[in-house]
Amino acid sequence: MISQNLALYNWNNGVIMIAIFALVCITLVGILVNFMMSGKKKEDTDEDQ
């Protein structure tokens, strides 16, 4: 009877770690897209020479 109330595994820690990992991944992808969009466009180099 007591063994029915015994939790074999607590999923809370795993769910929190997966959520943090997903948040970090989304943040890194956002930073990467931001760098790609804000990069300077390469113009003609004939004017510089």
UniProtKB/TrEMBL annotation:
Keywords: Membrane, Transmembrane, Transmembrane helix. The chain crosses the membrane at residues 15-35. The keyword Transmembrane helix applies. This is Uncharacterized protein. It comes from Xanthomarina gelatinilytica. The lineage of its organism: Bacteria, Pseudomonadati, Bacteroidota, Flavobacteriia, Flavobacteriales.
